[in-house]
Every structure is written in structure tokens, then in C-alpha cells.
Design a protein that fits this description.
3 helices, Ybab, Chain: A, alpha+beta, about 110 residues, three-stranded antiparallel sheet, rod-shaped
Length: about 110
């Protein structure tokens, strides 16, 4: 029975270490930038590793067609966000050894 408690303590320590490493990765990713373009560079977007929109640049020529501009902005933002999210998944997979358990990211304090 005491052996089971030792195993539980080891599991809890591993989970705590994993959570600390996850927080470190999230902090590092928050400082990284992910960029994407749409419309041949008419719209350029930058997001951080938390998928927060940091910057958007629009070629004035693109503003002549508002509907097209709206589509270009959505496309560029979506592409940049996807890059950010893929980086987080890659880093998380590295921490967990590829283990993909539903709710693991949330349990470890991820988004």
C-alpha cells in the first residue's frame, strides 16, 4: 500500500514539473511572432504565441474594394493564428512526448 502512495507522489511531482515547463513554454511563445500575408502581400498580419493580434498592415490599394479587403484581413489573421496555434501544439507535444489526452492542455494551464 505504501508503494502506491510513493507512485502517487511521483505522478504528482511529474505533473507539477510538466505544468511548470508548460508555463515556461507559454511564456516563451508569447514573445515569439507569427506572420502571414494575404492578397499577394496586400494585408500583412502579426500575432504572438498566444494568438493575440499584434500588428496589421494594409496596402492602401487594397482599401478600394472593401469586401475584398475584409476577406483578405480574415485570411491573413486566420493564417497567422494557425501558425501560432501549431507552434503551441508542437511545443506541447514535445513536453508530453506526443501524448494527446483530451483536456491535458487545459489541465496544465494551457488554452
Amino acid at each position: 500500500m505504501l508503494g502506491s502512495l510513493g507512485n502517487l507522489a511521483g505522478i504528482m511531482k511529474t505533473a507539477k514539473d510538466l505544468q511548470a515547463n508548460m508555463q515556461k513554454v507559454q511564456s516563451e511563445l508569447a514573445n515569439r511572432r507569427f506572420e502571414a500575408d494575404a492578397g499577394g502581400g496586400s494585408v500583412h498580419v502579426t500575432v504572438d504565441g498566444k494568438s493575440t493580434l499584434i500588428d496589421i498592415k494594409i496596402d492602401p490599394e487594397a482599401a478600394k474594394d472593401v469586401e475584398l479587403l475584409e476577406d483578405l484581413v480574415k485570411a491573413a489573421v486566420g493564417a497567422a493564428m494557425k501558425k501560432s496555434q501549431e507552434a503551441m501544439k508542437t511545443e506541447l507535444a514535445g513536453l508530453t512526448g506526443g501524448l494527446n489526452h483530451p483536456g491535458l492542455n487545459e489541465m496544465l494551464g494551457g488554452g
